[in-house]
């Protein structure tokens, strides 16, 4: 059985839309677990009243993304899940999303799978996976390189985001859960899929499965919009900061080939220190 784990903190309207999209799935062979990490907007009451099919696990208010996901994954594994999925609440799955993920999961039982992301406003593809070079510190996005007839099936990528990430239970048995100690929020998903690939598990972007997303609503984008010294400090040092130097250092030390580590770190620090006001 597939278990879908969704960590939430407030933003009830997004959570409703996400859960309503899951209710419309053509394949209902899954169960949904929401980890409510101390929401103050009535999320717990609304879920209990309107979504009785959803298991809700309360958090402490200090779980953030990684520990929240891990709490849900532990519960799912305890219930006998053989496939797991992490999903953010600010996505809406296309009606055939689960069906198309399970289709490829059956054919690639050891693979981690992500989904093609479309902007919910324009319905245009915005993310189709990346192939990353440790040498140049650059990612090559696959989406612009693929002609429409090629935008189907599985494409190998270097890592995957955690919104709509399917993980076979055997991967968790081999490498454990997400690194909540060193990567409490950002980079935990990229780290996990990188570690899994290094252990021999394939990592693919499934172009047949679609997620509708809100690109402008991520915490990282909201911080960048501020363009203030306070926002800059949050970007570099805050637990939700997309340029968090501590998180980047942990990610690099865990995953970068040793010979490339010094230049990779210097490049990464320069990008984070100088990039905030350039984008």
What would you say this structure looks like, in words?
InterPro entries: Glyco_trans_2-like, Nucleotide-diphossugar_trans. Keywords: Glycosyltransferase, Transferase. The chain is α/β, with parallel strands linked by helices. It has two domains: 2-216, Spore Coat Polysaccharide Biosynthesis Protein SpsA, Chain A (Alpha-Beta Complex); 220-275, no CATH class. The chain contains ten helices and twelve strands. The strands form three sheets. It has a five-stranded mixed β-sheet, with helices on both faces. Strands 5, 6, 7, 10 and 12 form a five-stranded mixed β-sheet that branches. A hairpin with a 4-residue loop joins strand 8 and strand 9. Helix 9 (245-255) runs antiparallel to helix 10 (261-275). The longest helix is centred in the first third of the chain and has 15 residues, at 64-78. The protein is globular, with a radius of gyration of 18 Å. The model has no long low-confidence stretch (mean pLDDT 92).
Range of strand content: 15-25%
Q: From N to C, what is the helix and strand string?
A: EHEHEHEEHEEEEEEHHEHHHH
Biggest sheet: strands side by side, in what order? Answer: 3-2-1-4-11
* Overall average residue pLDDT: 92
Q: What is the CATH first-level class name of the largest domain? A: Alpha Beta
The CATH architecture of the largest domain can be named as Alpha-Beta Complex
Number of discrete domains: 2
| CATH domain fold name of the largest domain | Spore Coat Polysaccharide Biosynthesis Protein SpsA, Chain A
**Cα gyration radius (Å):** 18 Å
- What gap, in angstroms, lies between the N and C termini? 42 Å
Q: How would you sum up the global shape?
A: globular
């Amino acid at each position: 059985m597939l278990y879908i784990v969704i960590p939430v903190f407030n933003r009830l309207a997004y959570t409703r839309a996400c859960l309503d999209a899951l209710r419309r799935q053509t394949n209902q062979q899954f169960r949904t677990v929401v980890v409510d990490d101390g929401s103050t907007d009535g999320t717990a009451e609304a879920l209990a009243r309107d979504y009785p099919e959803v298991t809700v696990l309360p958090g402490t208010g200090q779980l953030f993304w990684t520990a929240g996901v891990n709490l849900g994954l532990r519960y799912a594994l305890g219930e006998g899940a053989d496939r797991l999925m992490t999903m953010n609440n600010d996505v809406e799955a296309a009606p055939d999303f689960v069906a198309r993920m399970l289709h490829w999961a059956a054919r690639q039982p050891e693979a981690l799978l992500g989904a093609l992301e479309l902007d919910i406003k324009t319905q245009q593809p915005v993310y189709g996976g990346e192939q990353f070079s440790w040498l140049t510190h650059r990612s090559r996005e696959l989406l612009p390189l693929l002609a429409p007839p090629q935008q189907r099936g599985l494409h190998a990528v270097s890592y995957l985001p955690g919104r709509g990430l399917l993980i076979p239970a055997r991967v968790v048995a081999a490498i454990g859960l997400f690194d909540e100690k060193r990567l409490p929020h950002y980079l935990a998903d990229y780290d996990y899929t990188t570690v899994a690939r290094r252990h021999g598990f394939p990592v693919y972007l499934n172009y047949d499965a679609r997620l509708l997303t809100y690109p402008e609503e991520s915490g990282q984008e909201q911080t960048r919009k501020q363009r203030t010294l306070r926002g800059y400090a949050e970007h570099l040092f805050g637990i939700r900061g997309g340029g968090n130097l501590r998180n980047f250092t942990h990610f690099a030390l865990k995953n970068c080939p040793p010979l490339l580590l010094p230049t990779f770190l210097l490049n990464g620090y320069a990008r984070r220190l100088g990039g905030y006001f350039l984008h």
